[in-house]
Design brief:
about 30% strand; about 290 residues; about 25% helix; single chain; 4-stranded antiparallel sheet
Length: about 290
C-alpha cells in the first residue's frame, strides 16, 4: 500500500445560483450549476502510525483546524481508522472567494485518505461525511460538472462545452455567513427555472449566460471589491458574474481574447473548465 500521495484540489465556478427557499432549520435551499476549473490547490499526504493528524502550510497560513484536518478526523471517527497522516497543503485557490477551495481540499483529503488508509469506503459514504463538513464537498467528491440542489446533496451530472474564463478575486474577501444572514437576500426564486438549463444547455440557452447569482446584489453592497471587479471585467467588454458566496467574479473569454493584468492585490487567472475531477474514480461507486 502506498504511503504517499500528491493530489490536486480544483476550484469551481457557480454558473448560476438561485435561492429558492429556506428550511425550518434555517438552511437555505439552492439550485446551481457547478463547474470545475483548472485553478487548483495541491495536497501532499504521508501516512503515519499512531492516529496523529498534522499539517504544514506551503502557501498562506491557514487556521489550525482547517477543513482538511476536519475531514481527516471525520474519516477516522466514521471508520475507527487507527492510521495517522501528515498533510502539506500548497494553497493557491483564494479564500473567501466563492470558488470552493476549502471544500475541494476536504474532498481531495477524503478521497486520498480513503486509499491511503485502505478503507475502501464507497462514494456515498464519503459524501455523507463530506456533507457534514460543507455543502460543496459532495460535489467535489462526485467529480463531474453538475446541477446541484437542496443544501448541496442533490447532484445531477451535466455536460458543458469547453470554454475559457477570466476569474478574479479582489483584495477583499467575503464570508458566506454574512450574505446568507442579510435580510435583503432574495430567497424566493422560481424553482422550475433550472429545467431550462438542464433540458437545453447547448441550444437556445447559453449555459454560461443562464440565470443569475441571487447573492450578488447583497455581496456588492457588503463588499465594494465585488462591484469593482465586475466593473473591471466590464471595461474589457466582458459580462461578469459573481461565483458562489464569496467575492470572486468571472466571465467567459471569447476566442482569441486575453484577460488584462489585474490590479495590484487582486488574484486573477485565465482558467479552462474541466470535464471531470482529477480524482474521479478514486472511491468505489455504489452501482
Amino acid at each position: 500500500m502506498k504511503a504517499l500521495y500528491d493530489v490536486p484540489a480544483p476550484a469551481k465556478l457557480n454558473l448560476f445560483l438561485h435561492v429558492i427557499g429556506r428550511r425550518a432549520d434555517g438552511m437555505h435551499l439552492l439550485q446551481s450549476a457547478f463547474m470545475l476549473i483548472d485553478w487548483c490547490d495541491t495536497l501532499h499526504f504521508e501516512r503515519r502510525a499512531g492516529g496523529g493528524i498534522s499539517r504544514d502550510d506551503l502557501g498562506p497560513a491557514l487556521p489550525a483546524d482547517d477543513l482538511t484536518v476536519k475531514a481527516a478526523r471525520a474519516l477516522q471517527q466514521a471508520t475507527g481508522a487507527d492510521h495517522g497522516v501528515h498533510i502539506a497543503l500548497d494553497k493557491r485557490v483564494p479564500s473567501e472567494a466563492g470558488m470552493g477551495g476549502g471544500s475541494s481540499d476536504a474532498a481531495s483529503c477524503l478521497l486520498a485518505l480513503n486509499r491511503l488508509w485502505g478503507l475502501d469506503l464507497p462514494l456515498s459514504s464519503l459524501a455523507r461525511i463530506g456533507l457534514a463538513l460543507g455543502a460543496d464537498v459532495p460535489f467535489f467528491l462526485h467529480g463531474h460538472n453538475a446541477l446541484v440542489e437542496g443544501i448541496g446533496e442533490q447532484i445531477s451530472p451535466v455536460e458543458l462545452p469547453p470554454a475559457r474564463f477570466a476569474v478574479v478575486k479582489p483584495a477583499t474577501g467575503l464570508a458566506t455567513a454574512r450574505i446568507f444572514a442579510d435580510p435583503a437576500l432574495k430567497r424566493d426564486t422560481d424553482a422550475a427555472i433550472i429545467s431550462g438549463f438542464a433540458a437545453n444547455p447547448y441550444g437556445t440557452t447559453d449555459p454560461y449566460r443562464f440565470g443569475r447569482n441571487d447573492l450578488q446584489p447583497v455581496a456588492e453592497r457588503l463588499c465594494a471589491g465585488v462591484a469593482q471587479a465586475l466593473q473591471w471585467l466590464g471595461s474589457q467588454g466582458l459580462q461578469g458574474r459573481m461565483t458562489g458566496s464569496g467575492s470572486a467574479v468571472f466571465a467567459p473569454l471569447p476566442a482569441g481574447q486575453a484577460m488584462l493584468a489585474a490590479p495590484a492585490g487582486w488574484q486573477a487567472r485565465e482558467c479552462s473548465n474541466m470535464d471531470v475531477h482529477p480524482l474521479a474514480g478514486w472511491a468505489p461507486s455504489d452501482d
